[in-house]
């Protein structure tokens, strides 16, 4: 088992830092190009959600990213904010549903996280924040 | 990002990681240029794009509506398998056309 945790301000420029750091941490598993792309995309979706929806642009909010893997190359990703939380998780998970059409959001973030992972859970309480937890099984490479 | 006019087409060639921050940086320029030229065909070229996420899908859908509003057509170019998989989740290909490699070559049999 190996684990890393990052905590950073909810500034948009930190999203690239989060996705590239997560991928760098997983390099000992020798992931494929497709796996790297999917993990980057999962991180981008989850972190941008914290910034735009959780903290609604308040840059002093803290985003916490935790990535771990075990000897079977099962990767667990957790992304957490202490923002406004989600009122209706079922609705939020609907493809193309967005509360921020004004920002040209597509409403596809959660659909993408779900289809690029093997397990996808959302835990959220209005006024307290949101945690998403994803599991992705990477292939074994010698 | 590069923007060129070729015949009746306005072509945007994007490059690098097309993430939330970079789309914020280019959005106003793309909107203004599309409105200024009102070309019958607007092409988005993804040949040099290394990363894209749902922010890109939102941007694409909004520009599709913008081009539609003056009855133009938005065409996508050089969609890699990774980008294709991401875009397919949103049903984008049901409304937008992807230019084939040989679309511009004359073929006589």
Automatic annotation (TrEMBL), chain A:
InterPro entries: Anti-sigma-factor_SerPK, Anti-sigma_F, HATPase_C_sf, HATPase_dom. Residues 34-140 form the Histidine kinase/HSP90-like ATPase domain. Its EC number is 2.7.11.1. GO terms for molecular function: ATP binding; protein serine/threonine kinase activity; sigma factor antagonist activity. It holds the Pfam family HATPase_c_2. SUPFAM superfamilies: ATPase domain of HSP90 chaperone/DNA topoisomerase II/histidine kinase (SSF55874). It is an enzyme of class 2 (transferase). It comes from the Bacteria. One of its GO terms (biological process) is sporulation resulting in formation of a cellular spore. Keywords: ATP-binding, Kinase, Nucleotide-binding, Serine/threonine-protein kinase, Sporulation, Transferase. This is Anti-sigma F factor. The lineage of its organism: Bacteria, Bacillati, Bacillota, Erysipelotrichia, Erysipelotrichales.
TrEMBL record, chain B:
GO terms for molecular function: anti-sigma factor antagonist activity. Pfam families: STAS. Residues 1-109 form the STAS domain. PROSITE patterns: STAS. Belongs to the anti-sigma-factor antagonist family. NCBIfam families: ant_ant_sig (TIGR00377). This is Anti-sigma factor antagonist. It comes from Holdemania filiformis.
């Amino acid at each position: 088992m190996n684990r890393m945790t990052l905590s950073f301000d909810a500034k948009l420029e930190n999203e690239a830092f989060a996705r590239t750091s997560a991928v760098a941490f997983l390099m000992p598993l020798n992931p494929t190009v497709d796996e790297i792309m999917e993990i980057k995309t999962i991180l981008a979706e989850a972190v941008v959600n914290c910034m735009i929806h959780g903290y609604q642009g308040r840059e002093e909010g803290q985003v916490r990213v935790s990535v771990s893997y075990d000897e079977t190359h099962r990767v667990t990703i957790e992304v957490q904010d202490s923002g406004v939380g989600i009122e209706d998780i079922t609705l939020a998970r609907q493809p193309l549903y967005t509360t921020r059409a004004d920002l040209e959001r597509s409403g596809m973030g959660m659909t993408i996280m779900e289809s690029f992972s093997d397990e996808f859970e959302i835990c959220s309480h209005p006024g307290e924040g949101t945690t998403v937890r994803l599991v992705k099984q990477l292939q074994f490479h010698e | 990002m590069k923007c060129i006019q070729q015949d009746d087409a306005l072509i945007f060639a994007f490059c690098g990681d097309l993430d939330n921050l970079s789309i914020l940086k280019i959005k106003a320029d793309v909107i203004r240029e599309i409105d200024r030229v009102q070309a019958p065909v607007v092409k988005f070229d993804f040949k040099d794009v290394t990363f894209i996420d749902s922010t890109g899908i939102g941007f694409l859908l909004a520009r599709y509506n913008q081009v539609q509003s003056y009855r133009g057509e938005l065409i996508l170019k050089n969609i890699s398998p990774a980008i294709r998989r991401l875009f397919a989740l949103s049903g984008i290909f049901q409304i937008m056309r992807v230019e084939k490699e040989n679309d511009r070559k004359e073929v006589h049999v």
